[in-house]
Amino acid sequence: MDKNIQESKEFRLAKDWEMAVNSFSFNPKRFAAAIPTMHPTLQQSLYRLIKECIKVMADDTRYYDDRNMASHEEAKCLMEYLNKHGRNIPLK
Fold it and tell me: Where in the chain are the domains?
């Protein structure tokens, strides 16, 4: 992995997020319900982040085990939909 990525604030945030969602008490619906309380600009930043995450999950060059295959296939469908409807987002 690129050393610059590992030293970035984004990498540290991803690792913090990884630990938070790894808890059995983490509730994705409660997290999503909090989004409307964010400033609209931050909601757009969150959306861009989620879209980039979907691009990574849709990438066919990565290895997916059986636990992640359904998420990978769903992410590919989302990317196909976005690209079909004029929101061309290159996967690489």
Answer: 1-37, 38-87
Instruction: Pull the structure tokens for residue 55.
Output: 């691009």
pLDDT tens digit sequence for 22-48:
988 999 999 999 999 999 999 999 999
Which residue type, as a one-letter code, is found at position 26? F
Q: DSSP states of 57-91 as a string?
A: HH-TTS---HHHHHHHHHHHHHHHHHHHTT-----
Q: What is the mean pLDDT of the chain?
A: 91
* Contacts of 64 by beta carbon, 8 Å cutoff, 6+ apart: 72
With beta carbons less than 8 A apart as the criterion, state whether 76 and 91 touch.
Answer: no
Alpha-carbon distance 91 to 71, whole Å? Answer: 16
